[in-house]
Specification:
Blueprint: H1 4-20, H2 24-27, E1 29-34, E2 45-48, H3 60-63, H4 65-81, E3 85-86, E4 93-105, E5 129-141, E6 147-157, H5 163-179
Parallel strand pairs: 2-3, 2-4
Antiparallel strand pairs: 1-6, 4-5, 5-6
Helix pairs in contact: 4-5
Length: about 190
């Protein structure tokens, strides 16, 4: 009995950690990369590469044109805080935003190594399948067309999120990615 209580406590902690790891907040990762040899000191103005073309996310609230304009205003404000000015003609660089979703599943439970064993613990359930969202923001030199910077964020998309939560998370992800863009003059 003395071994049973610590073992059950350990299992409870492991289950709690596994459940927590499945949330949006705990799965969110970001990464940014500057192209080699790029001097951001020569970049001061920007615009969207395809301002009239919006990639659809499949989420009505995020695909709403009024919400997209709201996000666009946030992007402009963040870029201004970094020292960049949005212009309508002849920008130094352009930003492109791409979104995609991918179906994921718990690969460990599907591992062939375990074939032939009693896998009652590893029966797949609806909690072992989820959607992962990826947002990519690319900065391209407007004159050469070469990529000068990119930022990527990935996170588990929660189907139970409210529209308000989806909006807040979308803005948060855009902000986190743009935080890694070097300021003008660096």
């Amino acid at each position: 009995m003395k071994r049973f209580v610590p073992l059950m406590t350990l299992i409870a902690v492991a289950v709690a950690m596994a459940c927590a790891a499945r949330s949006f907040e705990n799965s969110l990762t970001t990464e940014a990369q500057i192209a080699s040899g790029v001097n951001f000191g020569s970049y001061h103005t920007w615009n969207y590469a395809r301002a009239d073309q919006y990639p659809m996310t499949g989420y009505a609230i995020l695909d709403d044109p009024s919400y997209r304009k709201e996000v666009g205003r946030d992007v402009v404000a963040r870029m201004q805080s970094k020292g960049y000015t949005k212009v309508d003609a002849d920008p130094d660089f352009v930003l492109m935003i791409h979104l995609l979703t991918e179906n994921k599943f718990d690969e460990q439970k599907m591992n062939d190594v375990y074939q032939g064993y009693d896998m009652a613990w590893a029966q797949m359930s609806d909690k072992d399948y989820w959607k992962e969202g990826t947002m990519m923001i690319f900065a391209m030199d407007a004159k050469t067309g070469k990529q000068i910077w990119n930022g990527v964020a990935k996170a588990r998309m929660e189907e139970t999120s409210t529209d308000k939560m989806k909006k807040e998370r979308f803005k948060k992800v855009v902000g986190l990615i743009l935080d890694d863009l070097p300021p003008s003059g660096e």
